[in-house]
From TrEMBL:
One Pfam match: FeoB_N
GO molecular function term, any single one: GTP binding
Xref: CDD domains: FeoB (cd01879)
Residue span(s) of domain FeoB-type G: 31-193
Gene3D superfamilies: 1.10.287.1770, P-loop containing nucleotide triphosphate hydrolases (3.40.50.300)
Gene Ontology cellular-component terms listed: plasma membrane
Name listed for the protein in its UniProt record: Iron transporter FeoB
Species the sequence originates in: Lutibacter profundi
Length: 254
């Protein structure tokens, strides 16, 4: 039996097809677009290969020297396009890699962002995790290299971690293909709205800053009603982020 796959236009509520096109991503014939983010040396490429197999190709981001890898997989009669973002420690955009990763998550609005972390060095990976959760409402934490953590006698309470972060946590050892089926299922459930995320956001902000952020967020939403996460953008504007300022002025990706 033939399966009808919806086009990007049919599923535009899941991602920003226009913004993704400007980022060089063709969303035709895919139900969902998945971003794969993480620090360098977390096994992110191994996770990407485990999810996509040989259905992948590489190139450069438009106007950048940064390499882009993309592939796909099918699950429960739905097609997923997977974009492997550059490995980065931050989204504060001090390098091309950080700019590419941030713009994709923020302006492309992927259906789900999978954040790959090293389970044996979880604490140092959390900076990027928390930054991503400030931007997107749909994310999955891929707790990779669990074999390394076990070898170092590191135990992680995944339920507590998931509760504190407000997103699903899936332990994996991608090099041995362990946890990959569970990761695919979780991605599907988040993408289809079967799992609702409540991502951790910064609290205990000084009152004067919170007031300024709320006022600026309201103005951003009025001027750009389709823009994602006006609160995070307001923070970046208050910090004088020149690239965000320029993106708003030019209407880039919006």
């Amino acid at each position: 039996m033939d399966v009808k796959v919806k086009t990007a236009c049919d599923t535009c509520a899941h991602f920003n097809a226009k913004g993704l096109k400007k980022l060089g991503v063709n969303t035709s014939n895919f139900n969902f677009v998945i971003a794969l983010a993480g620090n360098p040396n977390t096994g992110k490429s191994t996770v990407f290969n485990a999810l996509t197999g040989l259905k992948q190709h590489t190139g450069n981001w438009p106007g950048k020297t940064v390499t882009r890898a993309e592939g796909g997989f099918e699950y429960n009669d739905q097609k997923y396009k997977l974009i492997d973002l550059p490995g980065t420690y931050s989204l504060l955009s001090t390098s091309e890699d950080e700019e590419v990763a941030r713009n994709f998550i923020l302006f492309g609005k992927p259906s789900v962002t999978v954040i790959v972390v090293d389970a044996s060095r979880l604490e140092r990976n959390l900076n990027l995790v928390l930054q991503i959760l400030e931007i997107t409402d749909k994310a999955v934490l891929c707790l990779n290299l669990m074999d390394e953590a076990k070898r170092n006698n590191i135990e992680i309470n995944t339920r507590t971690l998931a509760r504190n972060l407000g997103i699903p946590v899936v332990p994996t050892s991608a090099r041995f293909n362990k946890g990959i089926p569970e990761l695919i299922q979780t991605i599907s459930e988040v993408a289809n709205g079967e799992i609702k995320c409540n991502p951790h956001r910064i609290k205990n902000i000084p009152k004067n800053i919170e007031i300024a952020v709320k006022k600026l967020s309201a103005k951003i939403e009025k001027q750009y009603p389709t823009i994602p996460n006006s609160r995070w953008i307001a923070f970046r504007l208050l910090e004088g982020d020149s690239q965000i300022i320029n993106a708003l002025k030019t209407g880039e990706f919006i």
